[in-house]
Amino acid sequence: RSKYQRIAEVLQGGTGFGGGSGGGEKGKFQFWVRSKGFRLGNGTREATKMGQVVVYVPVKTGTGADGLSEPEGISLKRVAVVEDFFDIIYSMHVESSSEPGKAPKHAGQKKTYRAIAETYAFLPREAVTRFLMSCTECQKRMHFNSNGLEPKESEPPSSLVSGIIDYNMPLTSTYLKQMKLRVMNSQEQ
């Protein structure tokens, strides 16, 4: 958050160092901010009311990872701050139902990450994966029985599996089953 605030300060015409001494560091930081193309924006009404500035960064657009082609060019995406990752991911992951009595829907990993990537920059896929691994509603859908082959409703998710999961891999039930089987095999040996 402090770096985000320093970037905003530079964009507003300040030094980005809160009046402290830094000599050449001030110039280097200002150059870095300008070279990355950071820009100030209005953001949401809530952020503006609270006096927060919103920082955007230009991102090249082209053919996405899913193979769908987008118009080539540059779009501005809001800079995600680490301290806000949870709130950002939660808001994109949990879709509120328009019906008052209906429970909110939980999007999957791909849908959640796509929604985040359309709006935010600098929020890694690993953060989304870690969030989903701790989402209690999503864990309920991924329960496994002791042999790891079939879902079972009454058994909580295995804590053994979470220690060896590669969070950079897409989360699929097949991947989780393989990891659980690997843990079980290593324990037997």
From TrEMBL:
So which domain of life are we looking at? Eukaryota
Q: Which InterPro entries match?
A: NOL4/NOL4L
Q: What is this protein called?
A: NOL4 protein
Q: Tell me what organism the protein belongs to.
A: Polioptila caerulea (Blue-grey gnatcatcher)
Q: Which gene name does the record give?
A: Nol4_0
